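Hey, quick one: can you model this chain's 3D structure?
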Amino acid sequence: MDGCSLMRAVMALSGGMDSTGLLMRLLADGYQVSCLSYNYGQKHSIELERAKDNIAYLALNGINVEHSIADLSSAMGIFHSALTTEGYDVPEGHYEAEQMKHTVVPNRNAIFASILYGYALSIAIREDTDVVIGLGVHSGDHVIYPDCRPEFYEAIAKAFEVGNWESEKVSFHLPYIDGDKEIILRDAEEALTTLQLDFDTIFSNTNTSYNPDEHGRSSGRSGADIERILAFHAIGRKDPVPYVESWDAILANALKVEMEMKK
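Sure thing. Here's the predicted structure for all 263 residues.
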């Protein structure tokens, strides 16, 4: 391997704030990044449009990121989840509340990680280089989503290592696994300063809401929304994405939900 070769990374770019923040960090650290997004039949497919918007914004600023969208809708669209099943409403409330388990898509991250691993290993072999697989999973996901926990990624990494030749070239990179959305945003602020990019533009091109309206405005009521709103509040910023209500109204609701959860 050429010791002067570029650092290489592949990552899942959902179009949400976590993966977008991770992309900014990888770019600021000097990685050449290839991104995969997934159409898995999710109702909130606007996140894919937001991902494309950020890739275009990066290109306008001289940062070229390879981006592909894998269509898994014919397979995963039949999975039972509030995120994919018509007539199955997305629950509202705190992101660690029991009802948020309805937003789990069975085996989703195992499927995503398997495709990413194959993609990363293909690049590693073709370019004769080491490749990291970047994922924006964080501690706020651990309670509700078993496939975001450290032990899940330890197990799946071992399985992929056993099941592939030249697997020593590929490793998982989970910088936020013990952090939360606030940490992701603070890290993104630093990365975007390094990249000389606009924070509000980048994060206005994201979607976290599982139930945006027909205009793409976030509801501010789903568990994912609440977590995001509180993270922006913690860093002293107003979230740049549009909501169906005013920032003051959705922040007041998020703070109320958080207080009730702590009782």
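One thing worth noting: Residues 108-127 form the longest helix (20 residues).
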